[in-house]
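Students often ask why inverse folding is considered easier than folding. One informal answer: many sequences map to the same fold, so there is more than one right answer. In these notes we will look at a single instance of the problem. The structure comes first.
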């Protein structure tokens, strides 16, 4: 069974004290999670080690980094390797968020290399994809997102692709308060699953968790997650509010 996932993406937010307080509150939710319903916290690099300690004892809560290097080690000032992340208890890595694609010029080829590094390190990539407003208005979003997936992930074999979590995040819905409708989300998720089915077969495609991201909040999570191909969410703004994120975890 593919996992249902509530993933928080704190982005470049919180002080240490705020991070501690948020993590503390989230721990209370642990009893409601299980092997197939998990929570993932994508928190800033400086607090990953602390989060590993805080959440380490709690089952079905996992820590994610928001980025990593595609290189193993060496003279790459300011970069963070997969081995470093693994050594402090990180289990997931968000890759290819639209903000990194836009501000750090991360492209499909680099993201293919980062995906390889994460998988080789035994961690799980949360691979983000999604179209801009102009692409959506032109009606070419299916082909655009498919290309992101093909160019960054289709070199993987069937065993590897099953380890990847996909996050579909239409850029026009990120941080704008303008959520994709549950029908729009379902339509794209079904398309992506068919893309995986064509390449890897139906059984493999059925095992891939596809999350929706873009203005997910407590009030819309249940309807979005109720769609047959929406396996949870990657949540930015609302994940910084403990009450909101608890409601979102509950919607799993
Ligand atoms: P948002 O961000 O929930 O604030 O729209 C989602 C994301 O960027 O992952």
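Output (designed amino acids):
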């Amino acid at each position: 069974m593919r996992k249902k996932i509530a993933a928080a993406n704190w982005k470049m937010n919180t002080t240490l004290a705020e991070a501690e307080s948020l993590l503390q509150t989230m721990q209370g939710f642990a009893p409601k999670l299980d092997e197939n319903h998990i929570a993932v916290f994508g928190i800033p690099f400086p607090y990953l080690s602390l989060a590993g300690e805080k959440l380490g004892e709690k089952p079905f809560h996992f820590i994610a980094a928001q980025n990593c290097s595609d290189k193993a080690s060496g003279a790459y000032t300011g970069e963070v390797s997969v081995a470093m992340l693994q050594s402090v208890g990180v289990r997931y890595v968000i890759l290819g968020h639209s903000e990194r694609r836009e501000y750090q010029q991360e492209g499909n080829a680099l993201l293919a290399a980062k995906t390889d590094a994460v998988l080789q390190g035994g961690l799980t990539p949360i691979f983000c994809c999604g179209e801009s407003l102009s692409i959506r208005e032109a009606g070419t979003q299916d082909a655009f997102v498919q290309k992101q997936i093909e160019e960054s992930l289709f070199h993987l074999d069937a065993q590897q692709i099953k380890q990847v979590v996909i996050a579909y995040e239409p850029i026009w819905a990120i941080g704008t308060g303008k959520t994709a409708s549950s029908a729009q989300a379902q339509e794209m998720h079904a398309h992506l699953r068919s893309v995986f089915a064509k390449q890897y077969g139906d059984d493999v495609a059925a095992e891939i968790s596809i999350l929706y991201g873009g203005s997910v909040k407590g009030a819309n999570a249940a309807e979005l997650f109720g769609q047959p191909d929406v396996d949870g969410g990657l949540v930015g703004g609302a994940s910084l509010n403990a009450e909101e994120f608890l409601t979102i975890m509950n919607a799993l």
